[in-house]
Design goal:
Two copies of one chain form a homodimer. Chain A has 405 residues and is α/β, with parallel strands linked by helices. The first copy, chain A, has eleven helices and 20 strands. Chain A has a domain at 3-173: Carbamate kinase (3-Layer(aba) Sandwich), CATH 3.40.1160. The first copy, chain A, is globular, with a radius of gyration of 23 Å. The interface between A and B is large, with 37 and 37 residues.
């Protein structure tokens, strides 16, 4: 008898009709003889109205009280889902993060899980119940309610799968799985049967919004097999995220991703002396700016240029931080460009195959797409190009690496 | 340094503006050097939208899951109120019923308090914080969330006042206190400075909606002094509910109450044999029908009539239950009257003063108001009259007992 953890995100529980659909999916899994644990997020509109209420009261609400407030969203979902299961004759019980002993540190709004008791869930499963757990939330040692920040319910699901030694963690979302690239850009994009944790991590950091990196890291660390699948088409097999691909020889490239939400900042003519980059990026980090690519080329006569990308939302703040840090150091100036896109190819196969970069650059240049920045990892090559050419670049690379085959 | 428990009901926290007002009231009490504990209900519209959601899913939702769902309402209020206090510079912390250890039995939706830990609150008060506690909710021995049913937040407030040995429990509401009668009916109704627990209990059961009987019983049992006062006019002194009146000699009558929400049912020609009334009222009780007055007069030639009143909402169900029970017993029939009102005079003084009933009946008859049923207790006389004459009866009795003096 397998233990299956199912996670349903905001779009899968956005209203009563969707909740009833979720109940049917869980019930179907139980009818196959499995023990089912469901993790749910808040209904989308609940979260928004709670945030609105807090904003009406305070521009900088206490993080502890925000956790107290926001955690009610998942609590509403679990109660309603339990009722929906009862109404189709399935024995079910809901638990808050506190009630199942999801112990975290005390970093409100971005808490990290320390331990999960798990026993209350196993007891309820043994009693024949479907167990519903509130995602995104836990409790610290002083019984304060904590929440996990972005992708929090995925983290709850993977952590529960670990604690319960579940056979699989099904992440239900609004797409059928992980694709070779965005099907809205490339109509013949193919759904992948499997993908490795490392590839998925790269895709997540490159802009694929299906799962948050944190939960994938968690799954990789504890070897939890994750299936990304659709709550709208539950009969369709999804994509399995696991340590190894199914094939003896992995394909060279697994997918193409694009991210249009970044801007580029260049700091020009920086004196090439130790510690300058450290100062700059420490200052950006202390403002919670998430710097993505960083490029520094070889120094030209004692001065160099440093370029980096940041989320578009953080551009203004990043520019002022950069100027403040750089001007006393005698840099020539700071420039920026909002009209960029990052396009990446990802695949563990490229570790053992030379020529991936050459193929990529050649395909782009044949279409007249100019490369502005390049960054590589063992299993990924990213380029920054003109925003207007992003979709074309994705199509070109998808074809060049024969991902539609 | 006094400990003050303040309770704010749904109308006092119905929106963000009212919440900010509540924060100011609590802050003012703290500025006087008091330790302040606040109990809040759910914002009115929150409760309604949660109930709506549950009804969209199930016609008979699980009581445990209803408690899981409904308890989020108060949790939202406490978090927002903490933020509102922070935003005016007051150190404050919110707690759920679970977090402060409000231990109850496991009767979901009508749980009774077994014990309150209190230590988390005392610790926070000692640390200089205003403490905000979610009303209406607790937790049973198995960590299930429970709620208290009608008047639940009042019960939380009184129970906390008991556990913390508070100096007073202020129940903030939308009226200035307890009046000799409804000021909407009698314009010169007077606000009472004090009222005894027993009188308040009678008034509550007679239709005064200010506090629920259960919380008054609790206050009486533990001698908690309660002040009913207005969150809209916090500068006005309210009415103190306590064991004894302030005067050596209590006035004879303290107040006049009317209830227009009941219907009368009469079962005619019941055989006067043991157990018939028991069968009838057991059947009504098992349908959760709250029977109020019951009158059975002396038997006339082996058959008697039994009359009783029930809430108007329960009339239909009560009639069908009565007919089902009575017809096999050979009763002549069941009649009903929706156009009735119950008017009552209340006062501990009547224990030692004869003639109250006579004064009451005389005053009514002088105005041509016919009495249909009479019921008395040690400190109360109630009559059932024609609905159309209810307000006039209240005015007549208010004047007859000189309550405006």
């Amino acid at each position: 008898m397998a233990i299956i953890v199912q996670k349903f995100g905001g779009s899968s529980v956005k209203d009563v009709e969707r909740l009833k659909k979720v109940a049917l999916i869980a019930s179907g899994e139980r009818d196959k003889g499995n023990k089912v644990v469901i993790v749910v997020s808040a209904m989308g509109k609940t979260t928004n109205s709670l945030i609105k209420l807090s904003q009406d009261i305070s521009t900088s609400p206490s993080q502890r009280e925000m956790d107290m407030l926001m955690s009610t969203g998942e609590q509403v979902s679990i109660a309603l889902l339990a009722m929906a299961l009862h109404s189709i004759g399935v024995d079910a019980i809901s638990f808050t993060g506190s009630q199942v002993g999801i112990l975290t540190d005390n970093s409100h709004m971005k808490a990290r899980i320390i331990d999960i008791d798990g026993q209350p869930i196993l007891d309820a499963l043994d009693a024949g119940k479907v167990v519903i757990v509130a995602g995104f939330q836990g409790i610290d040692e002083s019984y304060n309610i904590t929440t996990f920040g972005r992708g929090g319910s995925d983290t709850t699901a993977v952590a529960l799968a670990t604690a319960l030694k579940a056979d699989i963690c099904d992440i239900y979302t609004d797409v059928n799985g992980i694709y070779t690239t965005d099907p809205r850009i490339v109509s013949n994009a193919k759904k992948l049967d499997t993908i490795t944790y490392d590839e998925m991590l790269e895709l997540a950091s490159l802009g694929a919004k299906v799962m948050h990196s944190r939960s994938i890291e968690f799954a990789k660390k504890y070897g939890v097999v994750v299936q990304v699948r659709s709550s709208f088409n539950p009969e369709v097999k999804g994509t399995f995220i696991q340590e190894k691909g199914d094939n003896m020889e992995d394909p060279i490239i697994r997918g193409v991703a694009s991210n249009k939400n970044e801007s580029k900042i260049s700091v020009l003519g920086v004196t090439d002396s130790p510690g300058i980059a450290a100062k700059l990026f420490s200052a950006l980090a202390s403002e919670n700016i998430n710097v993505d690519m960083i490029i520094q080329n070889i120094s030209d006569q004692g001065a160099t240029d440093i370029s980096f990308t940041v989320p578009k939302d953080d551009l203004k703040k990043s520019l002022s931080v950069s100027e403040e840090i750089i001007s006393p150091l005698g840099a020539k100036g700071v420039t920026f460009d909002e009209n960029i896109a990052k396009v990446s190819v990802v695949g563990v196969g490229m570790k053992s195959h030379s020529g991936v970069a050459a193929t990529m650059f050649k395909a782009l240049s044949e279409k007249g797409i100019n490369i502005d920045m390049i960054s590589t990892s063992e299993i990924k090559i990213s380029v920054v190009i003109d925003l207007a050419q992003a979709d074309e670049a994705v199509r070109v690379l998808h074809a060049a690496f024969e991902l539609d085959k």
